[in-house]
Amino acid sequence: MYLQVIEGNYFTSADRESIYAGEDALICIDQGGKIARIVKKEASDFSEVRQAALIQSKLHQLSNDERLLPGFIDLHVHAPQWPQAGLALDKPLNDWLNTYTFPLEAKYKDVEFATPVYADLMQNLLANGTTTAMIFGTVYNDSNLELAKQAVSSGLRAFIGKVAMDNPDETPEYYRDFSAEQALEDTEIFIEKILAMQANSETTIFPVITPRFVPSCTDELLAGLGNLARRYDLPVQSHCSESDWEDQYVLDRFHKRDAEVLDYFGLLTDKSVMAHGTQLSNSDLDLFKNRQTAVAHCPISNAYFGNAVFPTNVALANGNKVGMGSDISGGYSPSIYKNMQQSVMASQMLTDGVDRRQAENVRGAGNSRISMKTAFYLATRGGAEALHIPTGAIEVGYQADFQVVKLHSDYLTNDRDDEFEQLMYQTERADICQVIVGGKQVYQR
Ligand code: GUN
Ligand code: FE
Hints:
Its EC number is 3.5.4.3. This protein is of the alpha/beta class.
């Protein structure tokens, strides 16, 4: 018998350019929380399956103005920065880090400060339709473990890292790892504890190797983290080529590009997710492709700190893996809807088809124009591929990670493509009625 059968209309990404619109289907979820079967209205046993679910009180009928969507995957969240979402975004990145972000993150030495913030963030991610997130913690393991516990108890699928940063030249004394050795030891302790939690958790919890970014780390730390990633075969998250400042800093220190340095230390793997990448060169994108490293496209944040547009089309056409990230709090919103909207809007600013990265002193990149369907692909399938987990699609074999959303208007169109477009632009947090992870309800409005 099924755990649950959801009846109604749904949308799922088919590929980078198109969606599939399911009509009046039965989405059958098995006891393990995966989609076992999708029964179309025309199927000969449709009534039989529906009736059986109904009798056993397992049928969940969506109303006429509700649609089922895959839950979103947010590839880049800084959990400790949640209290400052929307603050100080007029400052350049380095200034923002030193005057706002590092002092805030330092407060998480106290777990009592962390607990309510992390609980609130989990609820806000779920309430906005996010069912999986890749998350930076702080340098402090006590609050990182609290973050992991909150993620597990909320039901969110979470990939979490202890932030590693030990470079005394680029990090303040009050907020850094004491030494590379200490940072590596703490990272390993964190990994072991999360792996132990993983065994007892129904949802996905994964430890992630997390060098903050190259400027924050000594060579010794970068090399050690690369070794840990290989030894434990773990995902890696960091920032790469987010801004001119970062690129220039890395060039000055290593006489190599940011991506090349991360690769040199073994930090670009098929399980790596690098945030931003707005300044990645064509050869950097090729390197990412060869390593199967994904980019977390953070369109809201990029407007503030990257001052550039990530060339999504160039990257996708090149065969790069790309997903979507909120970059809380470089991006002010935990809503992946808002990030999808910004990704489309920003891409429209550069419609001349010129690859501007070829030109000197020109910001952003042309040939970037994307459709909402591509943005939806990034927010669902793209993110899931980066994390190697079967979520982000309403298809047999995938996790039953869903959001139920209400249409704003049903009087304008009967065209499912138009309906999809409107849904992506108009859905607000208040329209997200229910969020499901692994077949279980984790949020209800
Ligand atoms: N680079 C290093 N740390 C950070 C951070 O916290 N946010 C962003 N956007 N970029 C960073
Ligand atoms: Fe970030």
